[in-house]
Amino acid sequence: MIELDQLSKSYDGGRSLALDDVSLTVEDGAFLAVVGASGSGKTTLLKTINRLIEPDRGTVRVAGEAVGDLDPALLRRRIGYAFQGVGLFPHMTVAENIGVTPRLLGWPDAEIAARVYELLEMVDLPRDYAARMPDALSGGQRQRVGLARALAARPKVLLLDEPFGALDAVTREALGDACRRLHERLGLTTVLITHDVLEAALLADRIAVMHAGKVLAEGAPAELLAGHGDPQVRALMDSPRRQAERVAALMELADG
Amino acid sequence: MDERLAGAFRLLPDYLGWHVVLSASALALGLVLGLPLALAAARSRRFRWPLLAAASLIQTIPSLALLALFYPLLLALSAVSEVTFGHGFRALGFLPSLLALTLYSMLPILRNGVAGLTGLDPAVTEAARGVGMTSRQQLWLVEAPLAAPVVMAGVRTSAVWVIGAATLSTPVGQTSLGDYIFAGLQTENWIFVLFGCGAAAVLALIVDQLLGLIETGLARRTRWRVIAGLAGLVAGVALAAAPLVSFGPQPRAYVVGAKNFSEQYILAELMAARLERSGAAVTRRNNLGSAIAFRAVASGEIDAYVDYSGTLWTGVLGHTDMPPRPVLLARMSDELKRRFGVETLGPLGFENAYALAMRRDRARALGVSSIADLAPRAPSLTLGSDLEFLSRPEWTTLRDAYGLKFAGERRFQPTFMYKAVGDGTVDVISAFSSDGRIAADDLVVLSDPKGAIPPYDAVLLISPRRRGDQAFLATLRPLVGKVPVEAMREANYAVDRDQDKQDPAQAARALATKLGL
Hints:
Chain A is an alpha/beta fold.
């Protein structure tokens, strides 16, 4: 379980708040998508969980432990993290990239090698990719390796910061599905940051809507899609429906 | 093979060895200091600007001046250390050269180090933190390997600079490939000059290629390239340094100094040859700056050299009066001993005075035969001097005594000064009275009716620590009073002339034979 308790964060000495007294709970095994416009504070929120960003006030607890009391490097080895920039280490092979956290944890070489092949299979990449360098991969393949690297040390928590943002629609959909499958198969607790409400609705169990550093609404996708009292939430959650209606109209036109 | 070329090759093991050892030490020290500083600067924006600015500032100091500045600095430090810890250190030669070149090497290392570390893709550093690396692991596993090719490019630049600038360590008393260049320039031995430039260039090229191999190795992650490059560098340094290392008991080495002109080289060779014949080992320190040479003998870094009474009287002792010649000599010897502990073994028997000289035809056309005649003509004439004359107190005295005011004053390397008066670039020069080129170039020396130019008797000076060394003194004492000006002039000309040149050692042998020494 991940608990965020009254988090606040400002990057400009308090003039504006990236997080404004945010509290949020993610149950074990849940897949939460956080949506919101750029600058709404959703990435800041995610990074407080693995201490890439320290909140000014408030507490984050993962599995009951306050993360502020843990060594950040050790904490991060327990939490999978993948983000839009991927950040594969260009001087390491695919296998070395995937095996980096297990190596930091001191796993034996043979176990790391076996784990690398297991993960390549999980993210649907051929085994012989293990020896490739990152610059020999396509954008989608890189993101798959990034996902494999995040999962390598068998974390119970997976943090995804718009990992599919820079990909084409088809690859994006395939990777989203892969994430969801892995979430279920590995029993993960997943937090996904995205600005794409449709993606959030299709992948997540729960959706949190952020605006100006506050969580305006949190609930099951169907609940939020059905309508919400807050106009900001409604405007955001209506967009997939509007898109779907326009696509349906176009298809009717084509059929007729 | 040409005799001069063969001579150059004979000196190569010594010169190249020192050049390589000096450059390699400076570069290694530059890396040891530069890399942590680059890291600190990459981490802290506040530290970065002043550090890079300071490194750039050092770069703007001409390298020769930087080398020269370290000598007085180290001399002062040595004196402090003498007082504090009871022993000083050598302020001349290797140490000032090493420190100046190290400073000089740091800018490219710092600049590329900072660029390499700050230019990394932020996604990669975020990933390094995200996968759970500590900041130390992030540095060694990610940042260092990724910045390495950029840093190596800086090291290459730095190596080429250092190897080039190391030729300038000759004037502060460190043997290097610059010895060819400085000596060659002074004695018009262009083969030496070209040889020195060529050797330094070839060395720089080889080192650049080996470092380039390491750089590509790091960029493409091919281990053999890195290993081959490193092995090449280590083997090269070892090979070049080998001739400098000698095993077994060493004969006591005397150090003979010389300033930077032919007469000084010849006299140093004359002394060295005598000492070597007596069974002693001799190290030569040629091309010392005029003021550096005296401080070097006073501090015991050289054991003996020849200087000139007028220079010592005004330049070192700071006198402005001009007593008669024997009085000046006696008082000078006395004061040098009292104030610096430097022993004056005695005058060699000739004078090498500053003298104003003109081309004979030009002097005749202007009707000038003395400096007094020259004074009214001076405003339409140009004076050419060596590099230091115009800054010396003797010039001020001379100028004020006759009210000299020239239309222009130009400074030359002595060799080019004679060329300049020969082709009419300048009208009058500050010649040296023992210089063979005065007669050979058909110059006339203008008389000094007011006696404003002090006497410049060549005197043999001995360092305080050799004052009691009877064997050493006995070997050199026979030179006192034995060298007439004609013989010195002839020997100087044999080295300075364009045709049928001798090197200083040959000229010294001829001089010794002629004088029956």
